UniProtKB/TrEMBL annotation, chain A:
SUPFAM superfamilies: Globin-like (SSF46458)
Key words of the record: Heme, Iron, Metal-binding, Oxygen transport, Transport
Gene Ontology biological-process annotations: hydrogen peroxide catabolic process
Family: Belongs to the globin family.
Annotated Gene Ontology cellular component terms: blood microparticle; haptoglobin-hemoglobin complex; hemoglobin complex
GN (gene name): HBM
Annotated signal peptide: none
Name this polypeptide is given: Hemoglobin subunit mu
Gene3D superfamilies assigned: Globins
Residues covered by the Globin domain: 1-141
Entry-linked InterPro entries: Globin, Globin-like_sf, Globin/Proto, Hemoglobin_a-typ, Hemoglobin_oxygen_transport
Record Pfam families: Globin
Keyword Protease: no
GO MF entries: haptoglobin binding; heme binding; metal ion binding; organic acid binding; oxygen binding; oxygen carrier activity; peroxidase activity
From TrEMBL, chain B:
Species per Swiss-Prot/TrEMBL record: Gorilla gorilla gorilla (Western lowland gorilla)
GO molecular function: heme binding; hemoglobin alpha binding; metal ion binding; oxygen binding; oxygen carrier activity
GO CC annotations on file: haptoglobin-hemoglobin complex; hemoglobin complex
CDD domains: Hb-beta-like
Similarity-based family: Belongs to the globin family.
Record key words, sorted: Acetylation, Heme, Iron, Metal-binding, Oxygen transport, Phosphoprotein, S-nitrosylation, Transport
Pfam families, sorted: Globin
All residue ranges annotated as the Globin domain in the record: 3-147
Protein name (record): Hemoglobin subunit gamma 1
GO biological process: erythrocyte development; oxygen transport
Amino acid sequence: MLSAQERAQIAQVWDLIAGHEAQFGAELLLRLFTVYPSTKVYFPHLSACQDATQLLSHGQRMLAAVGAAVQHMDNLRAALSPLADLHALVLRVDPANFPLLIQCFHVVLASHLQDEFTVQMQAAWDKFLTGVAVVLTEKYR
Amino acid sequence: MGHFTEEDKATITSLWGKVNVEDAGGETLGRLLVVYPWTQRFFDSFGNLSSASAIMGNPKVKAHGKKVLTSLGGAIKHLDDLKGTFAQLSELHCDKLHVDPENFKLLGNVLVTVLAIHFGKEFTPEVQASWQKMVTAVASALSSRYH
């Protein structure tokens, strides 16, 4: 459960990302592939050529979904249901990979926001993204 | 565990040279205790950990954080033998401190975010990769003597 303060922190971070979804998303994917090469197996075409346009496009899509989750923090299950179905039936990304993506997300935020990335923001955002990951893998079995 | 290329070693060493161990130590341990509050279980004797600001300002947290990062920094000269370097500390963390090795991974990840905050754009994906390798290897070395 997210406290009111945590919700505010999450929204505050999102305000800093909003409008830059493609750029943040592309960097997120680039970090994921560079730091955790095994994750590339889930993105065969994307990770092979690492074409900037495709990374931006897929990055945009992923961050847009995160943005939707931010808008529906109080009901992630309903808001992310189609994506949960997608991950359970089609993508089937092993749940162990979500913490890797989350770590890269923190690093993207940290390297861009630097001192603006407060400890409270990091705590709230980690809790939030972990919750998103739980919802996305909930229908796996 | 973890094979470091010459490039990894150069990246790790040069970045570390620019880190203020005292500041980074306090920041890293503080963030660990705030972001993952259950890690506070090891620090009952540290006094006031009742809020994020209390934790970040706590002098015992800062001192201990500095101690931890100083130890980590010392290991950078021995990247090819982290297991040997951390053998005694591994036994200590198992036998005396009873720390779940999962905490080493958490601390390592928080350190990486603190470095990213400090270095900004300089903390490229490649630099992050070298450092994640580093913290993973340290975590592994610290848990190697558990029994």
